[in-house]
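An instance follows:
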Amino acid sequence: MLRITTACFQSATKLVLEGRLIGPWVEELKAALRTARMAPGQFLLNLSGVDFVDAQGLALLQQLRNEGVAYEQTSPFIQNLLGM
């Protein structure tokens, strides 16, 4: 399961992820990203609560990183996966 919480601020929109970024939840995150990107300002992805990522999830995170999405509060697990 993956919990996605959206927080909107004047200058940024933040998605906070908690749980496992796997299979069907990757598609849920993509849908949430489409919605969040419509808001003006900077876009942030908080990954501190993510405790597992499968191959699909990792591919999405790498794609987002290449697109310039800012990550904040990444866990050591995620940092290791992304080579940060």
